[in-house]
């Protein structure tokens, strides 16, 4: 699992580099104890994923050809549940995405029967996508990605959310890395350099787009950035005296806002975690919220209160996977939970050539850890329900196999 370990740790390294660069422009504070927790967690990732488990890509499990028709049928069946939601929310067409999302959150949408049906169908969406993406038949992969694009765009107009884009994008990345692991592992440094350069290019293009979109009111945009309470105003003012300064300013701001701040937000929560009662797994495995057993939004509001009341942050905050595990299990319990996830990750790789369920579980866990510097995918209801179903499927296969 050295390949997976390197990629996960390098994702965190990119975040740390961005935080370091942003410290040139921002006042960054990370508490000592949250740093100790972070270092411990990274050591666990390094330790438990440093194992040379071997498997052969050319002998991965594939369903029988006849079963692919059933998998495609189930995939379309899951996707069809989006259509009634599209029709119910057709008034959202033409609205700004942020406006749709704000209305959806303010009215606590998503609790009706159509949403529940779509939620229950989520394993029929995510699991077939992974299986079809592994297929050697190109048509199957085209179907998988076409339907995934339809579902992702549908939910932009239904809820204004980007969740499905993120999940499908991570699945695609994890499958790509798995299928090309031999080539990438031999050229890891070269691949990472290309990956970082691509990331920098996206940040530059995003910064230029932000400036172009605000050309008529660039001074107002700069005023908003300068008003942020953690900006080093003297450094920013000096930087903005040059023509290229605005681009650098926006680049650092966007990279820090979307990537680097998650670690800062984790530290903020870590120092005040007692303000939120322990959820005992119900925050991340929150699919029970759909059945009224727990109130996930109530816990989420308490987390938001920490950021708004103590730090004046009023937007949706991502605080890395570690924050969400602490919400559920506390500081020490979260490390135990991290160990269990890492152990399950190792098991999925060990049985990669034995069970199809192991391949699917591997993609779920690899995606989870790839996104760990930003947010816990487990806190997404559709993901957590699908993960639970795949885990039960894998556990059943493992029990039957060991009884032989």
SSE diagram, text form:
Layout: H1 2-22, H2 32-48, H3 65-80, H4 82-88, H5 97-106, H6 113-120, H7 122-134, H8 138-159, H9 163-179, H10 181-186, H11 188-213, H12 218-227, H13 233-239, H14 245-270, H15 296-311, H16 320-350, H17 356-370, H18 381-403
Transmembrane segments: 7-26, 32-49, 70-87, 113-132, 139-157, 163-179, 191-212, 244-270, 325-345, 351-371, 383-401
Keywords: Membrane, Transmembrane, Transmembrane helix
Protein name: O-antigen polymerase
Separate helix tally: 18
Query: What portion of residues is helical?
Result: over 70%
The profile of the biggest β sheet is: none
What gap, in angstroms, lies between the N and C termini? 27 Å
Mean pLDDT: 81
Low-pLDDT stretches are 214-218
Structural class: mainly alpha
Q: Assess the beta-strand content as a share of residues.
A: under 5%
SSE order, as H and E? HHHHHHHHHHHHHHHHHH
> Strand tally, please?
0
Radius of gyration: 22 Å
**Silhouette:** globular
């Amino acid at each position: 699992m050295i390949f997976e370990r390197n990629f996960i740790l390098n994702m965190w390294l990119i975040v740390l580099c961005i935080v370091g660069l942003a410290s040139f422009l921002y006042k960054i504070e990370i508490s000592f104890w949250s740093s100790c927790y972070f270092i411990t967690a990274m050591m666990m990732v390094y330790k438990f994923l440093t194992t040379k488990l071997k498997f052969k890509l050319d002998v991965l499990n594939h369903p029988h050809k006849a079963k692919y028709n059933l998998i495609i049928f189930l995939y379309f069946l899951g996707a069809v549940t989006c259509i009634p939601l599209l029709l119910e929310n057709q008034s959202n067409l033409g609205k700004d995405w942020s406006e749709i999302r704000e209305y959806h959150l303010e009215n606590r949408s998503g609790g009706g029967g159509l949403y529940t049906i779509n939620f229950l169908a989520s394993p029929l969406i995510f699991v077939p996508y992974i299986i079809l993406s592994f297929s050697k038949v190109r048509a199957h992969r085209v179907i998988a990605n076409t339907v995934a694009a339809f579902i992702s765009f549908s939910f932009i107009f239904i809820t204004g959310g980007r969740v499905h884009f993120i999940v499908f994008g991570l699945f695609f990345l994890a499958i790509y890395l798995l299928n090309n692991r031999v080539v990438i592992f031999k050229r890891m440094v070269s691949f990472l350099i290309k990956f970082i350069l691509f990331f920098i290019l996206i940040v530059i293009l995003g910064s230029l787009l932000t400036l172009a979109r605000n050309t008529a009111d660039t001074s107002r945009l700069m005023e908003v950035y300068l008003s942020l309470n953690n900006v080093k105003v003297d450094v920013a003012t000096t930087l903005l005296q040059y023509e290229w300064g605005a681009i650098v300013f926006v680049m650092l701001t966007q990279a820090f806002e979307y990537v680097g701040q998650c670690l800062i937000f984790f530290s903020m929560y870590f120092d005040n975690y007692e303000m939120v009662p322990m959820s005992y797994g119900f925050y991340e495995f929150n699919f029970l919220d759909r059945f009224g057993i727990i109130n996930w939004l109530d816990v989420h509001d308490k987390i938001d209160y920490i950021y708004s009341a103590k730090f004046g942050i009023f937007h949706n905050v991502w605080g890395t996977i570690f924050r969400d595990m602490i919400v559920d299990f506390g500081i020490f319990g979260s490390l135990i939970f991290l160990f269990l996830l890492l152990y399950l990750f190792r098991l999925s790789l060990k049985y990669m050539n034995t069970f199809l369920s192991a391949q699917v579980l591997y993609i779920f866990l690899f995606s989870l850890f790839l996104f760990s510097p930003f947010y816990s995918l487990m806190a997404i209801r559709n993901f957590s329900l699908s993960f639970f179903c795949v885990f039960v499927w894998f556990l059943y296969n493992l029990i039957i196999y060991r009884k032989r």
